[in-house]
Specification:
about 35% helix, 12 helices, seven-stranded mixed beta sheet
Length: about 270
């Protein structure tokens, strides 16, 4: 699946289906049905949010691969944007940090996710948390208006990653920064996994080499780039056997290929 528009359509359909399910259903079989999103268990990647201030259980679909808001150094009064905001989980945690004087904006390209997020913010009664339907490759915000950008296991799904990071650079104020959690690789994934749509929506096949990921960030103009957290993701054999023969599985597990969740920080230069 190499056509960017086809990739976006597939991701939109997968996450629209996930939006209709509970966190428990997502964790047990992606979205509660093997025919819906394949056999990808999204909880393989996710970290627990329930200890964080601002956590709203109804907004947690178990789809992340880190806790970017914990590393984002959000200050009271900041304007924060969450890219790929889903049901609003990271937005509500960010709102607890930016306070009533700040502003939090969630961007998502899936209409059902936006609807779910709007329902959640209505129940919570927050007037400074907003959700917009939009594409990360063309963020619907003005330049130089955002203090902090966060994103959780979403940017690796974007077909044109240089464009996505260029957009982040554009909307950030000079001196602003981002903290994003994502899936990256060390070594090459087998071709059968690369080609699997379910694995793409599950944040694996869309991932690129960690070195390339960090290089794109630097080429976008960012400075002070650092990996704030890194952990290896161990995919279960029963999942991999959907895409690999037993012989291929042994070779894959004994090889040098690694799948990692990373949280990356970078700053837009103050003089720009």
């Amino acid at each position: 699946m190499n056509n960017p528009e086809d990739i976006k359509l597939m991701i939109r359909e997968k996450y629209a289906a996930i939006a209709d399910q509970s966190k428990t259903q997502n964790e047990s079989s992606c979205c509660g049905s093997g025919s819906c999103c394949g056999d990808v268990d999204y909880s393989i990647f996710s970290d627990s949010y329930d200890h964080l201030k601002g956590y709203a259980a109804d907004a947690d679909l178990g789809l992340g691969c880190g806790l970017p808001t914990s590393f984002a150094m959000i200050k009271e009064g900041d304007t924060v944007v969450d890219l790929g905001s889903g049901a609003g989980n990271d937005c509500f945690v960010a709102r607890a940090q930016t306070g009533a004087s700040g502003k939090v904006i969630g961007i998502d390209m899936t209409e059902k996710m936006i609807a779910k997020a709007l329902e959640n913010v209505r129940k919570l009664g927050y007037e400074n948390v907003h959700f917009l339907l939009g594409d990360i490759e063309a963020i619907p915000l003005e330049a130089n208006t955002v203090d902090v950008v966060v994103s959780n296991c979403v940017l690796n799904l974007v077909p044109d990653k240089p464009k996505a990071f260029a957009e982040i650079f554009r909307i950030l104020k000079p001196g602003g920064h981002f903290s994003v959690s994502d899936i990256v690789l060390e070594g090459e994934l087998p071709a059968s996994i690369q080609a699997a749509a379910e694995m793409y929506a599950g944040c694996v096949s869309g991932a690129i080499q960690k070195s390339s990921y960090l290089q794109i960030i630097g080429q976008s103009g960012f400075q002070q780039i650092k990996v704030q957290k890194e952990k290896r993701i161990e995919l279960p054999d029963e999942l991999l056997l959907n895409y690999l023969s037993e012989k291929e599985l042994v070779a894959f597990k004994n090889g040098n290929t690694g799948i990692f969740s990373v949280t990356v920080y970078a700053e837009k230069p103050s003089q720009h």
